[in-house]
Amino acid sequence: VTEVPAVRLNDGRSVPQLGFGVYQIEPDDTERAVSRALEIGYRHIDAAQLYGNEEGVGRAIAASGLARDELFVTTKLDIERHGRDSAREALDESLERLGLEYVDLYLIHWPRPAEDRYVETWTGFEQIAATGRARSIGVSNFLVAHLERLAAETATVPAVNQVELHPWLPQQELRAYHRDRGIVTQAYSPLAQGELLAHPVIAGLAARHGRSPAQIVLAWHLGLGNVVFPKSVRPERMRENLDVLDITLADADVTALARLESGRRTGPHPDEV
Ligand code: NAD
């Protein structure tokens, strides 16, 4: 496997740019899927309390025999557990399920603006980072307005914001904001949950490069500097999705992909969760 580039975070740590996501993997399939992903060469696993499969992730990590510092493991705070103490307790439970002493990255999964506790929750995350139980802390599904509130009311800039992002939803404004503030963009559902892959423009680029549609879309993400973690339970697709580091898109390819922007989401809008 070609070396996956490391992306530097604003806290001095770094994250492998390409990883493996475990959303919608059945709890009973998770150990097997993550074990295969680790065998194939993935070293960054994107998990969440909400996905209900942290035990399987933990069993695969334990069985892998890999040293802890060779792995980058993310989990995310359950949407029902905002609050300073609650965030810490929820992480302790995650660590128990994962069989780990720390996660590399802990994210507020959704801002829940109607509940309006994300600022308090973030102060809990700052304390968690100070204990080392999460090496880095960040957010997910935050809009600029939510990030602005953290900037105004707390002392720590999130290391990452993990948002839905793919050629239909390139998130230009948010990416520019992140760039200016030193926040790394993590692109979730990087393949639009697979729905984008039949698009004729992408199929055309795939044919021209002699690669698969998924590989073209992942190469686009890496070229933008996004961190990605496509999900698949099929080993051949896991391999395919990791085998993208040598693909260079031409400016004309990037322009063709930019024309696909439609604002289409595969998941909910952050203000509605
Ligand atoms: P994705 O864009 O990674 O698409 C996954 C689907 O695409 C697969 O189920 C499969 O149907 C298809 N696919 C994958 N590789 C393929 C290939 N090589 N060829 C053909 N089809 C292929 O969607 P996702 O799982 O939603 O996103 C990836 C990860 O992002 C998740 O597993 C999770 O870790 C994270 N995520 C985070 C949030 C959040 O709120 N923070 C939300 C959704 C997803």
Explain this structure to me?
With 273 residues, the chain is an alpha/beta fold. It has ten helices and ten strands. An eight-stranded parallel sheet has the order 3-4-5-6-7-8-9-10. The protein has a two-stranded antiparallel sheet with strand order 1-2. Strand 5, helix 3 and strand 6 form a beta-alpha-beta unit. It is globular. The mean pLDDT is 97. Bound molecules: nicotinamide-adenine-dinucleotide.
Summed up:
The chain is 41% helix and 15% strand. The protein has 273 residues and is an alpha/beta fold.
SSE layout and pairing:
Layout: E1 6-8, E2 14-16, E3 20-21, H1 27-40, E4 44-46, H2 54-64, E5 72-77, H3 84-98, E6 103-108, H4 118-131, E7 134-140, H5 144-153, E8 160-164, H6 172-181, E9 184-188, H7 200-209, H8 213-224, E10 227-228, H9 235-242, H10 251-258
Parallel strand pairs: 3-4, 4-5, 5-6, 6-7, 7-8, 8-9, 9-10
Antiparallel strand pairs: 1-2
